[in-house]
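Late entry, written up from scratch paper. The run itself happened at the end of the previous shift, but nothing got recorded in the book at the time, so transcribing now.
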Amino acid sequence: MDTMRDRFISTTSQLLDDDPRLAVVLAEISRDGFDAAERRHPDRVINVGIREQLLVGVGGGLALTGLRPIVHTFASFLVERPFEQVKLDFGHQGVGGVLVSAGASYDWPAGGFTHMAPGDVALMDTLDGWAVHVPGHPDEAEALLRRAAAGDGRDYVRLSMQSNERARPVTGAGFSTVREGRAGVVVAVGPMLDNVLAATEGLDTTVLYATTVRPFDGAALRRAVAGGGTADVVLVEPYLAGTSTAAANDALAETPHRVLGLGVARRELRRYGQLEEHLAGQGLDARSLRERISGFLTRT
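Output as recorded:
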């Protein structure tokens, strides 16, 4: 199976052929994958080198001319380093574009903390008008990317090396119900779904699946908890723990509830290790999730 990043390159290359409104802006990362597309569209595939502030600034400038830019690099260099440009060159200028990241929270541990970005979604959440997409499979990444490219708004698509075994239909921006139960609701975001399903096997819980987390689908969460007394909700996100707890609390403001936000801790794991070891170290593997979820749901 190809990776989400592989699918991003092939899909975007095709979109460049089909839609003259689109342009791709790179900062060396994934440049080789766009060699053929650059030969076909030298005016719409732009590599700025390792200059991330310029990367986003060029994207914003292209948007001001009427193009729809697709801006790509690692998450830490796309959201964190040039955050001022994201805020001003897109949001303040009132233009749209598609930011597509790679690397996720810790996909390449050998790169060290400079290449890790568990706080990217929380940081984007401070800005108005951004839709945030977190696919859990390359097929979902393609569907979300095509939808974002065809639109006019501001979209952030977060790609990862982590992937669920199979894709789920991406039919809209809302959460989908994967499993129904009566003793709590677990919201699994993107590549967390398989581990959440394994962790909740045999538990009487509803599992919702989210590939678009902003806007937050509060209506789906309210429907999932309807009919009970106190609502118990667990959010399992592949980035900073607690990123969506405020959104869940707001959605359930009229319902007695408890919310547990699971994700990447603030502490830095300083050993390189492997992706799977970081997943376990953050308590996001299936075994750890079962202990944490079941412990929360049975607590009185």
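The chain is about 35% helix and 20% strand.
(Scratch paper discarded after transcription.)
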